[in-house]
Amino acid sequence: MPAITHGWPMLALVAVLAYLLGAVPFGLLVSRAMGLGDVRKIGSGNIGATNVLRTGNKLAAALTLILDAGKGAAAVLIGRALLGEDAAQVAGLAAFLGHLFPVYLGFKGGKGVATFLGLMLALSWPVGVLCCATWLVVALVTRVSSMAALMAAALSSLWIFLLRQGTLIDLAVILTLLVYARHWKNLQRLKAGTEPKIGAKKG
Fold first, then answer.
1. Which is nearest to 87 in space by CA: 78, 97, 95?
2. In the 8-state DSSP scheme, what is residue 195?
3. 39 touches 47 (CB < 8 A)
4. Which of 54, 134, 188, 202 gives a 20 to 30 Å CA spacing to 81?
């Protein structure tokens, strides 16, 4: 963790605002705006880009991916610009929790992959690029989105260590544990060999 240079009341305010930003359900909003209905009623029921892709609309999925990543990056960058690195990490974690447990949807949110990648890019772009590359390579090889997500999260700590970005390691471990917790059912399907491929209509 970076040095805590600001008082907890200020950091708590940053956390609340970042949480509210992270909680914006772009997958649901984009799907509805494009006339695709409620994305929670198709496929896996998730509000993330992978499930939006199951509507058959690649543009909607791409917009969801960009916006979900963007809100994570924005939270980090705004926190850093206003206060510093301690606020940036607090904002990143809070935005991530907002995506996973959005108050606007009864705390039933997404799995956080795009948001994870976005905030990693904002926290340390070299680490973020390696995480994105990990996701892309695994996705291309396996055609399984969840496998790509799990590998990108798991290897984030390794990239942080190799690039000597030690102040990020605690946050990376927390985020990785949350990603794995949210992918618990995917892990079970991966073990059983029943996890759907990218673009499949059923989750």
1. 78
2. P
3. yes
4. 134
